[in-house]
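Ligand-bound model needed. coproporphyrin III.
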Amino acid sequence: MPAAPLAPYDALVLLSFGGPEGMPEVMPFLRRVTAGRGIPEERLAEVAEHYARFGGVSPINAQNRALVAALDAELARRGIAIPVHLANRNSPPYVRDVLAGLAPARLLTILTSPYQSYSSCRQYREDLGVAAEGLDITVDKLPPYAAHPPFVEAVTAAVLASVRDALAARDDTGASATSPGTTDAAAAHSTDAAAAHPTDGTAAHPTDGAHPRQDLALICVAHSIPEAADAAAGRPETGGHAYARGLAAMAETVTAAVNTEFGLDLTPDLAWCSRSGAPHIPWLEPDILDRLDAVAGAGARTVVVAPIGFVSDHLEVVYDLDTEAREHALGLGLDFHRAATVGTDPAFVAGLVDLALARATAARHATDEAQPDGTAIARDLNVLAALPPADCPPDCCRSQRPVKPTRCGREDPR
Ligand SMILES: CC1=C(CCC(=O)O)c2cc3nc(cc4[nH]c(cc5[nH]c(cc1n2)c(C)c5CCC(=O)O)c(CCC(=O)O)c4C)C(CCC(=O)O)=C3C
Ligand SMILES: [Fe+2]
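Prediction:
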């Protein structure tokens, strides 16, 4: 390993969306997010109410600070000395302030959005492009990492754990074998039964054809985006739709893992949450609430909702899923379980560090600096080759909006 394994970078920057941390910040935050975006005023008022339920505090910033700390710890564990900073699009610390404080510097950014779309990739590149104007800043980013095996494994592990809980709760209540009582009664019963005997033997149950587990539904969920934004997501020459395709691939992988682990025969099911925008503009569907209606109608008694599109809990997760979708599911008589987000899962964090090392190796390789270890280079470049390019090609995730300066694109200043 070279003496400075993350050279040529001076610092890592975790780049995220941001969120309010108190009621006075909510409306200014919402206006910043939606500036010039044609989001109806009623929608803003509605979303402000969602934040109000949590005292105006989104969990996102605390989660990102925890991720920075976890990255620091993983880097220290590997003996790599490099600072990690948080920078946000819509709340302090703003990208511009962070970059200004670091200049002159060469930075590597880690996006908290693994999937490709305007909102989750190019818009972050614009944030960097606008913020870096007039500053002596060189900046690269990790490639979109939705298909990176450690991330896929961390998401899968969280979904398996939630399905295990869901099956254990149900086997204990017997709710699926008999007619279900009210969900409150079932929940109370579940607590008693769980106290009476441990529930970790669920996976050992034989799955004969009569076993009632097929009334378990697994719904993977991601943030909806306009259909037009999905059509333009990723490289145009690969046909667009990189956002929905990346999520469909993840849904397929986790569902296959659940089927194997628990002897089930579930079909991948992908739904969307947090639609906004004008009603006449089509966004990705079905909405999670409509899918809950459908699975309840088809006989499901237990639903596991897996937020595969989010790396950490934020308002879409704690409101749109844990509050709204949960209430909706309970109203339909469904037992509701929500899989954890990857958060600071050690495999996820280690995977990000692996990718940063690979990106640094590629950067050194590209500039023809001394290459002490050819094997490591080949291995690192191999990791990157399996993912979309870290430097986005022209027109990747393009939008109809006014052109802004970008970074981390093939044609951009580094
Ligand atoms: C793909 C995607 C992600 C995932 C990738 C990523 O993580 O970046 C994401 C994340 C997030 N979205 C968030 C919040 C909001 N998103 C909004 C609006 C929008 N999101 C969009 C897309 C995405 N959004 C789009 C196409 C819009 C329409 C307006 C526009 O085209 O820009 C609005 C406006 C009100 C509303 O309409 O809901 C809010 C408040 C928060 C923070 C939550 C918190 O505070 O915890 C986070 C992490
Ligand atoms: Fe959003």
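The chain has 13 helices and eight strands.
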